Amino acid sequence: MYAGFWKRFVAYCIDGIIIWLVTIPIKMASDAGEEFLILFAVWVLYFSLMESSPTQATLGKKLLGIKVTDAQGQRLTFVKALLRNLSKIISMFTLYIGFIMAAFTQKKQALHDIITDCLVVNNNFSPAEEAATPPQKSSTGLIIALVIAGLFFVVLFGGCAAAVVLPQYVIAVEKSRAAEALANLKIISDAANRYYLRTGGYSGIDINAAGNLDVSPPANRNFGFSLGKCSGSDCIINACRKASLFTSDAEACAAPKYIISFTLSGGERKRAFCTPEGEDTPCSALNPMLN
What we know:
Number of helices: 11
Mean pLDDT: 83
Number of strands: 6
Low-confidence stretches: none
Radius of gyration: 27 Å
Strand content: 5-15%
Largest sheet: 4 strands, antiparallel
Shape: elongated
Strand order of the largest sheet: 3-4-5-6
Order of helices and strands: HHHHEHHHHEHHEEEEH
Helix content: 40-55%
């Protein structure tokens, strides 16, 4: 009557794919820090809302014919479902041993199930069956031991790995987004140079959607585009990195994280550069790519 480890594992994989597909726009538009917080919120709310719903199951669990109940076999409240899913953090801290516990505990409970007194059962489960099942021995000592061991390994190895990997990941993500902004800048600058050839100068150029170029500025979730000083035969076009996911295109260049600029002169594109360089921006890493 209790859902086995592999059923739970396959259901979790299905839910992971669903969340990944739904959150693709968030991954494209947000910073690494913002992305983590938003994805964590989506993950927790998805599981908590679905498991406290009348079906008592996420989409993955529905496909596998399993559901989540409390210790008496009843539907979870949203608060209890939320606490259960937040407790998965503790299961992760134990190097995922907390999840693997579902393969060998008496009632197929993972560590977060034991902490919150919940069950994952097959759909044909009835509360009467649970009432007839002998109570499980206390697992308090096991929980404490696993949490302490997990925290030790997380602090010891996780901190070292994060210090090495995370900065490189952030730079790699920014390089990818900067490459997209560069492609957009090339489109705009080519249109600006055509404007120069038509009119004999950059004065009066307008790169807005309702402006006087022969193309509209490409849509970009991470950058807003603006003009620097443009007069006569010289012009600067900027791609401003938005301060956050919620920054509008119009606000992007008011307080940008950094700016990628193209200089134009006499109907030709001269060079690209990123400013400002320093520890707070990735420009030091981006400038070699731009030149």
